[in-house]
Amino acid sequence: MTSHFAARIACGCLLLLSGWPVSPSAAADLARRDRVIAGGLDWLADHQSRLGHWSGNDGRYPTAMTAMCGIALLCEGSTITQGKYQTNVRRAVDYLISRTRQNGLIGDPTGDDRYTYGHGFAMLFLSQVLGEEDDLSRREELLDVLSRAVVFTGRAQTKAGGWGYVSAKDGNGFDEGSTTITQVQGLRGCRNAGIPVPKEIIDSAIQYIRNCTLPDGGVQYSSKGGGGRPAITAAAVACLFNAGEYDDKYVPKLLKYCENRLGNTSQQGFGHWHYAHYYYSQVRYREGGTRWADYRDPLHGKILNEAVETKRGGKTHFHWSQGYIGPVYTTAINLTILQLDRGALPIYQR
Question: With the C-alpha atoms ordered 205, 210, 213, 216, is the resulting torsion angle positive or negative?
Fold first, then answer.
């Protein structure tokens, strides 16, 4: 075991233990959570295709699903070179590299009407494994893929500073908040991994988010309107935190909007519940302390109660069936949320 890998696991264990009380009931909750996580990760591993990818319902969005599942496996502590899911992670990396186009897009524009999602999540996932790659030729290949991906993202940005479901050229300049956040997180992951990212791309995107923020703190669907959206607002705050934006007037307004709509985890009177809490959990985890614990415990309880238990090959599996995109999507999101305390991924660390 490499010292870096061991340090990541040790750090994750310390964070995990320090985030939970040691009472008998809390110990039982922790054991239950770890059991569901382990079964969920095994479910993902067993549902990876022979080609190395995962897909949503009807085989849709393989690039995005592969990157999101890869991120969930990385949160466990496995890497491209170490850990229980090392082989699964490497196969996912191989698949995404094989999907890279000459223009830098990671994905298939002919079969995916929302390919910027896949591209953004793929940048995020691949940027998190780059530092672990010890094969020189493979590392050079990853550097090339990510460098060209950054160039593609820059060219796909709209004049308003955001991104749409497809590139600005393919989408006639249409922009949308959630795809914009995906691109910014991917770009931040690349920059943190040492890939050059032009500052003006990030600055323009941050300004786009500000321009889309309504007086009540909600970030609207698009620069053209669409009303404030809890999911997009939570994603925007996570994005701003990743970009080092902690404005003492602007950011608290967004946080208050999120608290009113997402602070009660049982509230589901809005679209994309899992997607919203995928990002809002990152925000609350960054805040730490009781802010994180008071939100985390009921959120985890809800997620654990909704897990579907199955048996396969003598093993206990867990997955989540909610969501129109399919169980792979929901399972990857929930496993990422449940594992934030492990602190394994640089992009999610405090």
Answer: positive
